[in-house]
Amino acid sequence: MHMHWSDHSYVWHYNSEGHPSWLTDDQAFAVVHQAAKDWKACGIELRYAGITDKKPGVFDGKNVVGWRTDGTRYSAWTSWRMRRDGRAVEADITLYSNIFDIYRRKGIDAYLEMRKSAIHEFGHALGLSHSSKPSDAMSVRVRTRPEWRLPSDNDIGECRKIYSRPPL
Length: 168
Ligand SMILES: [Zn+2]
Hints:
CATH superfamily: Collagenase (Catalytic Domain)
Distance between the termini: 17 Å
Helix content: 25-40%
Bound molecules: zinc ion
Oligomer: single chain
């Protein structure tokens, strides 16, 4: 059972605290906002509902996308809860700015990695699982080709499958 938003809309808030210091507030927000827009072809509404002080990764009734600086293994994480019938309750996306700082120090295109991670996590927030196809945004493999940054036709197809039922 895939988690899904029964009214076909994912309404998210943003907390800018802890974003990478090498991006302005606007630049950091733009990465997140664009990643949400990149799923538009799925047919679900991803609506930005404003800034919040609430932390990402805490179940508090609000879908929060934001940053933390204490990442260890992952560059990003989606925390979600659903009812037994698959209806989503909450999905928060945490981006670990300290991990992207490390990428940057290693000479990796951290901005691109951030874009890809944000898109991948929005996919989870919409209910998508991992894909075994390396060209998919939902792949867990490290996607080295910049042109693979966007959701693939396969990703969008998987997303559409979840939302093929009419909204409640
Ligand atoms: Zn994942």
